[in-house]
Amino acid sequence: MAIALIVAVTSALTVRSRRKRTAALAAQWQAFQQHRSSGQGQLLQVTRVYQHGRRGSKAVVTWCDTGRQQDAWFWNWHVPAGAYLLVNASSSYGPHSHNPNVLYV
Q1: What are the φ/ψ torsions at residue 31 (nearest 5 degrees)?
Q2: 26-82 pLDDT, tens per residue?
Q3: What is the largest CA-CA distance in the chain?
Q4: I want to staple 40 with a disulfide (CB 3.0 to 4.6 A). Which of 35, 44, 82, 100 is the partner?
């Protein structure tokens, strides 16, 4: 009986926690989309992080509007793979990779 009660309480707390997290993520996503629709940046997803350095991260990003992939440098920021970001950034020459089209965020 006690074990069943513990399992029931644990399950209820897990469901409640997931609901709160889902609601928080939905609110964040909606705010994200509002900023995006008002022209305050462009949406991209960090596809793969291939280097974490002392001064930032090098990653491959995918632009959500076009699906185009691009190398990116995130100055002073260690970005996680899979993250969606709303960015204002510019592309320029990457001296380390000799890539003419690196996104600087």
Answers
A1: -65, -40
A2: 888 788 777 777 777 788 999 999 998 889 999 999 999 899 999 999 999 899 999
A3: 67
A4: 35
